[in-house]
Amino acid sequence: MTTPTKSRPWRHLYNTKRWNRLRWYQLQGEPLCRFCAALGHVTEATVVDHKQPHKGDEELFFDPENLQSLCKTCHDSTKQRQEKSGYLAGCDANGWPLDPNSHWNRTPGG
């Protein structure tokens, strides 16, 4: 059995001052869960998520443009399904797909 540190050697980055500061600023700037908001729900965000998995790439890890605020439920379920399947399942309150890469979300000619 592998330990979390051996399978994910970048775990130590989450214990740095730099990450804690970045996490705080992210939650201050986006205090509500992005996925819940797309569904028309108001839920406090408690997790700062990397939109694109960083896999130890420190530049991507600390990139504020790669961050989004999520509630723990969305992070641990919806986001995990998205990473495994390659798309974000579900629709917003207006019936539009949540996945920004859906063909329904593309602009004509784009």
UniProtKB/TrEMBL annotation:
Matches recorded under InterPro entries: HNH, HNH_nuc
Membrane-spanning segments: none
Gene Ontology CC: cytosol
Swiss-Prot/TrEMBL keywords: Endonuclease, Hydrolase, Nuclease
SMART domains: HNHc (SM00507)
Molecular-function GO term, any one: hydrolase activity
Occurrences of domain HNH nuclease (ranges): 21-76
Source species, domain of life: Bacteria
Family indicated by similarity: Belongs to the HNH nuclease family.
Protein name stated in the entry: Putative HNH nuclease YajD
